[in-house]
Specification:
Protein Transport Mog1p, Chain A, 9 helices, about 240 residues, six-stranded antiparallel sheet, single chain, two-stranded antiparallel sheet, alpha+beta
């Protein structure tokens, strides 16, 4: 794919469900940044549309979405360009909503955006992470995992709206669970429980950080929070 074509395809499908597109994004940090921004923009738009707004404005947004859907079906690539313009258009409409006192993106919504951003190429990055190496990363947050028995298959730093955080993926008996350790200095609105059509999540406010667990399996959210709260020690 040419670079412009890749970007157009990514704008049309920020989750990069196409295998070729996912590989291209996994190999290019610039595309990864673009994908992250698109996913965050989608989450912001979704949040904004959940608030009560004048009926006339809702109607305009619905008409705009329908128009873009028709254009995408008729012309794939030109539809991608139209979608980019649409995102800018809707973002412009919703900007005033955020400026006039509506809550900002929540901790859970930001966590979901991260999970969707990593999903297309996460499998290529999974590898067993020794506990001592995980604890070396946790140490920068003044924390460590003690007597932890479950496999950790991914551990890397990430950004939560300007707050340096830690992104972990754990192998459980039910599948994979994502865990974020986010310093409590973050500016995101805290929420204990959150979900969408695919994932469910739970947040814990610990000593100096917020712990966010995301999984497709309810059993993980019933077991992991208690284990982590008990075995994640703050120095």
């Amino acid at each position: 794919m040419a670079d412009l074509t890749i970007k157009q395809a990514l704008i049309a499908d920020p989750q990069a469900r196409n295998a070729d597109l996912a590989r291209a994004v996994a190999a290019d940090p610039e595309l990864q940044q673009l994908q992250r921004q698109l996913l965050l923009d989608q989450a912001r738009i979704k949040q904004a549309l959940q608030f009560a707004v004048p009926d006339s404005l809702q109607l305009k947004l619905l008409r705009q979405q329908m128009l873009l859907s028709q254009q995408a079906q008729k012309r794939r690539f030109s539809g991608a360009i139209a979608l980019a313009a649409s995102i800018a258009f809707v973002a412009g409409l919703t900007l005033n909503w955020f400026n006039y006192g509506y809550p900002q993106m929540t901790l859970g919504e930001h966590a979901l955006a991260h999970v969707y951003h990593e999903a297309p190429y996460l499998e290529q990055m999974l590898a067993p992470q020794p506990l001592n190496q995980v604890n070396a990363k946790l140490a920068s947050f003044g924390a460590e995992l003690t007597d932890w028995q479950q496999a950790i298959v991914y551990a890397n730093f990430c950004d939560f709206r300007g707050t340096r955080s830690l992104h972990l993926v754990m192998q459980t008996e039910h599948g994979l669970a994502t865990v974020f350790l986010v310093p409590d200095s973050n500016k995101l609105k805290f929420e204990h429980h959150f979900s969408d059509n695919t994932y469910r999540g739970r947040s814990l406010a610990l000593k100096t950080a917020d712990l966010v667990i995301v999984s497709e399996n309810d059993a993980d959210l019933q077991q992991l929070p208690a284990k982590l709260k008990q075995q994640l020690k703050f120095i």
